[in-house]
Amino acid sequence: MDGFDRQRKTGFVSPQVGMMVEIFIPVGIFEACANDLQRYDLDDRFLAKNHVSILPDRIGQIKDYLRELFWLAQHKPDWFDKPHVQQLVANDLVPLVIQAIPIQGSSTPTLKPSRRRKLIAQAELEMVAHLEKPLTLKEQSTS
Known about the structure:
Radius of gyration: 21 Å
Helix content: 40-55%
Order of helices and strands: HHHHHH
Distance between the termini: 47 Å
Low-confidence stretches: none
């Protein structure tokens, strides 16, 4: 079975009663949607697990949406040939999937992307202003 990283296999034991679904979402689309939904917990640490369990109360919405897609595939397959359909499906399905992922607990708070950008810009200005001076991360974190 594939996980987030299709080059790595993931294995797990599932209960006798349950459902398993593989949904392939390009990383760029997943990250953009997660950022739009302010799900900053869905970062590299999250993706490193290589699989996710969906909240049981949210799986119904995803199943209903997938049923609609399967019905369309069976009864109106030409609909999928339209150029805008892939974007429509991504705009509908990806947020449903992301909203169904439990919020990941974190022992260390992470900075929001806008805050990271500000810190990076500040560090760049500091380095340019002091090109002749050696710079260490320890010095930067205390200034």
